[in-house]
Amino acid sequence: MLTGKQKRFLRAEAHHLSPIFQVGKGGVNDQMVTQIKEALEVRELLKVSILQNCEDDKNEVAKELAAKSGAELVQLIGMTIVLYKESKNHKKILLPRA
């Protein structure tokens, strides 16, 4: 679990990022989760946007993506989700201590 201090740090790091995945009408699917896992391994921190035509609740989408990808939900702001997962092979982000 991330502390408040670590989440603040990650929100600041994510500020300049653009969303690289979109959740649309089909909702969350296995292929999307696989791609997000792979992207998290390389990037550690990424944004996912929820499109207007997504029929699922944005909070449920955020929780489902975090749970299925094994990532931490850093933030859900508007229709944008910020996810973080520490990389095994491509560690770039050094979190502040708790």
From TrEMBL:
The keyword RNA-binding applies. InterPro entries: RNA-binding_CRM (IPR001890), RNA-binding_domain (IPR051925), RNA-binding_YhbY (IPR017924), YhbY-like_sf (IPR035920). Pfam families: CRS1_YhbY. Residues 1-96 form the CRM domain. Keywords: RNA-binding. NCBIfam families: RNA_bind_YhbY. This is Ribosome assembly RNA-binding protein YhbY. It comes from Chryseomicrobium palamuruense.
